[in-house]
Amino acid sequence: MLQALIFDLDGVITDTAHLHFTAWRSVAAELGITIDEEVNQSLKGISRMASLECILQVGGKAGLFSEAEKEVIAARKNQRYVELLGSLGPGSILPGIAPLLEELRARGIGIGLASASLNAPGILQALGLAAMFDYCADASRVAHSKPDPGIFLAACAGLGVTPSRCIGVEDAQAGIAAINASGMVSIGIGATLRDADLRLNSTEELTWRRIAGLMDLTDRATSVRR
Ligand code: BG6
Ligand code: MG
């Protein structure tokens, strides 16, 4: 029996990657660093400070800033990102997500959030989805970020569910690794993802029928192994 679906936020519930990119690009430019779409891809799913370290590395400036200076740079990026979030509304929910959440709710299946973003509560509010989530794990209280399973395990604990009875949905490779390490079943959204139990091209394909089918297969594989 499926107990809960636990979602990543950025790239699964709404597409904020371009807003993160715009904010990071302007902050990086002020440091004399140019970042392209390939760098942006590598920032998906990783924390704000880990993103900054990655950008400094790309620009050959790793180790040049103190912790306090890095905090200031990260805060500047976040200020710009939060300004850009002002454009989000219910129309920014990715296709298929709103009807799926309704269906899960009607079936009594738990709905959780496991996002690395410290802006997650504000984003869910802006999308008008806050009330749909039974539990949102708090990234600031989790010791290690994805690919560590900590945030998904925190969401399972908050929902009071068993990881092996839950599905995690992610658009980042680090996120798929985190779900797999947590013992949950993984669904990846995106053409280039590896190692997901089910890989889909877009959230439109994330239907109840596919989710139920995946859980059936997992149940059968588990009973064959027993
Ligand atoms: C993840 C994004 O969801 O959240 C990353 O994929 C981002 O790109 C991370 O860096 C942290 O977000 P925030 O809002 O706390 O800076
Ligand atoms: Mg994501």
How would you describe this structure to a colleague?
The two termini are 17 Å apart. The radius of gyration is 18 Å and the shape is globular. With 226 residues, it is of the alpha/beta class. α1 (17-30) crosses α4. The chain has two domains: 4-14 and 92-225, Rossmann fold, CATH 3.40.50.1000; 17-87, Putative phosphatase, domain 2 (DNA polymerase, domain 1, Orthogonal Bundle). Strands 3-2-1-4-5-6 form a six-stranded parallel sheet, with helices on both faces. Helix content is 47%, strand content 10%. The protein is built from nine helices and six strands, in the order βαααααβαβαβαββα. The structure holds 6-O-phosphono-beta-D-glucopyranose and magnesium ion. Magnesium ion (MG) binds next to loops. Magnesium ion binds next to loops.
